Amino acid sequence: MSLIMNELIEKWDEVTAGAAPEEADPVVLECARLLAAEPDGEQAVLLTFGLVSMAPYVLGRRGAAVERAVVDALGAAAEAMDEQGRGCGHEAHPYTDSLEEWETDTDGLLHAPDTEVPFDEWDAAEACPRNAAGWARTAADVILPGSTDGIPEIVPEDHQRYIRSLGSVLNDYPNGDPFWDLDIHAVPPGDLSRAALAGYVVVAHANCWYAGSGRIRQRSLLDDMIKGLESVLPLLPDEACAHEDGEHPALRSGSAEQASEGIHLQSPGGRAVLREEHADGYGASLEAWTCTTFLRALAVEARDHLREAVDRLFGTRETAHLDQVYLRPDGRLDIGPLSERHVPFKDETASEEAALWAARRYERLGPDGAAPDRTVLLLLMGAAADSLELSYGIAREILGILRTAATTLPGGACDHADGHAPRHERSSDHMARIAHLYAPDAGPAPGQDSGQGFSSDVLTCPVHLAEVVTKGITEIEEQFEEELEAEEERLAG
Fold first, then answer.
1. What string of H, E and C letters represents the secondary structure of the chain?
2. Which of 93, 103, 100 is nearest to 136 (CA)?
3. pLDDT of 91
4. pTM of the predicted structure, to 2 decimals
5. Mean per-residue pLDDT for 390-404?
6. pLDDT of 111-144, one tens digit each?
7. For 464-488, how does the pLDDT look when each residue is reduced to its tens digit (9 = 90+)?
8. Which of 53, 189, 232, 456 would be a feasible disulfide site paired with 437, CB 3.0-4.6 Å?
């Protein structure tokens, strides 16, 4: 190896992600100039891998002259060295192994041959011009997606697994805990390439609807997704683009398919799949997939949806407007619709808001409030904690009110040896008994009609009320153990 090449290699080693452009650009441009001048020359392989090694730096120079110069030089080298290496006799070249093991664009580039290792110590297939051509195409695609063709459609095994796991979650058939399947994609990797940025945003947008549905109970996932999306917005200028209507990806095929496309964007082989689909007449171009105007709209929509979900699932809920629904003109409870809303499997949002209204009404009445009202409201709180699908924010508030109520209720024993309710009582029958307790004229209690011998009056037993409150507290604490612990840690920090 010549002295000049040794000096160049030493300079290449100093060009890393985040290096000062005034120092790094001249080094990169000189390497690109030499390669473009002799793309099949004696030093073409080393010059190619020099540009590959400096590609992580070039990723941070979007739109600068150095970006285009490197892509053009790599493209010329790939074409020339493919021809030069034709008939090399190698069954395979190492760059394809790297494509199979690809994780992220910046990490994937690190698997290229190290130019600091003496060239005569390289494996023959490693030093082959066709291997260099493969790496040249790969690096060019990482820097500017779609700038070159000829990359094998090799989707890394890890990425295939992500596609399968997200597909099962987003189709609502998770194979395990969906939290972990979504959490791995919550924040972007460092030193984002154009396509990796696009892939992250597309996957986050696909995942945000499930994450915000209430099926994920850990607030930390939504918070991380929001932070991740906000962190990439500075890379997505709020400006118009030159694309015509219909050129941006349509995203009409559902969240699972969208997530699959987002994962494909994160590897050279995956992008080759999308490129081929576009060539076959369906799917958007890679240039359209990486359009920052398109991506900004997705990122903002996903972030805003997740913010709303955090408020809805973990924040407070306004219930004052429900006074006109659950209170009669004389100020008494309209127990019919209120109790009916506490039957599970109806409108979950309306049910949990009714439960929260009942809890707040109980708290607002205070110890001096009407005893019949406070009793049935306490019973409704217990039923909500035991049988309704409550979001964490609502459950947390009801838990606080139940804990306060527990300090005012006596324990001990009572004369109801058979208990206070029929065994395996249906929720609808239990609600009917509560409604009958408050408004006997509204209709007969189910227990009396069926001959089970449980009148609504036993519901007012102080021991029973204490049991209801204790059970309600236990149900919420067990159901939201992780969330409560996480919130305690967050408040302590």
1. CCHHHHHHHHHHHCCCCCCCHHHHHHHHHHHHHHHHHCCCCCCHHHHHHHHHHHHHHHCCCCCCHHHHHHHHHHHHHHHHHHHHCCCCCCCCCHHHHHHHCCCCHHHHHCCCCCCCCCHHHCCHHHHCHHHHHHHHHHHHHHHCCCCCCCCCCCCCHHHHHHHHHHHHHHCCCCCCCHHHHHHCCCCCCCCCCHHHHHHHHHHHHHHHHHHCCCCCCCHHHHHHHHHHHHHHHHHCCCCCCCCCCCCCCCCCCCHHHHHHHHHHCCCHHHHHHHHHHHHCCCCCCHHHHCCHHHHHHHHHHHHHHHHHHHHHHHCCCCCHHHHHHHECCCCCECHHHHHHCCCCCCCHHHHHHHHHHHHHHHHHHCCCCCHHHHHHHHHHHHHHHHHCCCCHHHHHHHHHHHHHHHCCCCCCCCCCCCCCCCCCCCHHHHHHHHHHHHCHHHCCCHHHHCCCCCCHHHHHCHHHHHHHHHHHHHHHHHHCHHHHHHHHHHHHC
2. 93
3. 85
4. 0.79
5. 92
6. 999 988 888 889 899 999 999 999 999 999 999 9
7. 899 899 999 999 999 888 888 888 8
8. 456
Q: Which pair of structure tokens corresponds to residue 411? A: 């324990």
Q: Which two structure tokens, joined as six digits, stand for 58?
A: 């070039």
Residue with token string 């991380």: 224
Position 392 pLDDT exceeds 70: yes
pLDDT tens by residue, 134-172: 999 999 999 999 999 999 999 999 999 999 999 999 999
Query: What are 327's strand-pairing partners?
Result: 333
Q: Which two tokens stand for residue 126?
A: 């490693």
Q: How confident is the model at residue 398 (pLDDT cuts 50, 70, 90)?
A: very high
Q: Phi and psi at residue 248, in whole multiples of 5°? A: -70, 155
**Gap between the Cα atoms of 284 and 248, Å rounded:** 6
Q: How far is CA 389 from CA 208, 354, 423, 472, 479, in A?
A: 20, 12, 22, 13, 10
- For residues 30 and 43, what is the distance between their CA atoms, to the nearest angstrom? 14
Asked which of 37-51, 401-415, 420-434, 442-456 is least confident by mean pLDDT, the reply is 442-456
Neighbour tally for 29: CB within 10 Å? 15
Closest residue by Cα to residue 31 from 59, 15, 7, 8: 8
- 54 contact partners, CB below 8 Å, separation of at least 6: 12, 15, 24, 27, 28, 31, 70
CA atoms within 13 A on the CB side of 18: 4
- As given in the structure block, the two tokens for residue 363 are 């708290």
Q: How far apart are the first and last CA of the chain?
A: 57
Confidence (pLDDT) at 451? 36
